[in-house]
Specification:
alpha/beta
Length: 145
C-alpha cells in the first residue's frame, strides 16, 4: 500500500473516532466543539467550553507546550496516565480504548459538578464561552457538534 493511501486510511480512522467520541459525549449531555487541524491529522474536541478539558485525537506526539488532558493516539500502544510539569494528570489512550476515555471524561465532569454545583458549573461554562469567543485560533475555527 502506498504511503499516501496509508495516510488517507489513518486520517479516515481518526475522523471516525472523533465522530464516535463527539456523538457519545453529546448523548451524555456534553457541549462539544470540534476543530480539525489543517496542517496535521490532529482533531481536537473541547468539552463544555473547556470546563471539562479537551481531547486530542492524533497520529503523532503533540507539541511540548500544549498539554491536553485526554489524548487518543495511534502511536500509543497502551493506556498511560502521566503528570505534566504543573502536576496535572494527562491521559494517553490507544485508538481501541475510546470507551474508557469516555468513562474518564464523564467521571471528571461529575466530580466538577459535585465540586461547583450544577449552577456553578454552568456559570463557568458561560464565562469560558464568553472569554473564548474573543480569542483567535481554536475558538474561531471550531464548530459545535
Amino acid at each position: 500500500m502506498s504511503r499516501n493511501r496509508r495516510k488517507g486510511k489513518q486520517q479516515r480512522r481518526l475522523k471516525n473516532i472523533a465522530g464516535y467520541l463527539a456523538n457519545r459525549l453529546k448523548e451524555d449531555g456534553f457541549i462539544v466543539q470540534r476543530y480539525d487541524s489543517y496542517s496535521t491529522n490532529s482533531i481536537y474536541l473541547k468539552l463544555d467550553y473547556g470546563v471539562c478539558n479537551s481531547i486530542r485525537i492524533s497520529d503523532h506526539k503533540g507539541k511540548q507546550h500544549l498539554a491536553y488532558r485526554y489524548n487518543v493516539l495511534s502511536c500509543c500502544p497502551e493506556r498511560i496516565a502521566a503528570k505534566d510539569k504543573w502536576g496535572n494528570i494527562k491521559y494517553y489512550f490507544p485508538l481501541t480504548d475510546c470507551d474508557i476515555l469516555l468513562g474518564a471524561a464523564i467521571c471528571d465532569r461529575q466530580q466538577k459538578i459535585a465540586r461547583f454545583g450544577t449552577n456553578g458549573y454552568e456559570t463557568i461554562m458561560q464565562k469560558n464561552k464568553e472569554k473564548g469567543m474573543k480569542k483567535k485560533g481554536f475558538w474561531q475555527k471550531a464548530k459545535l457538534v
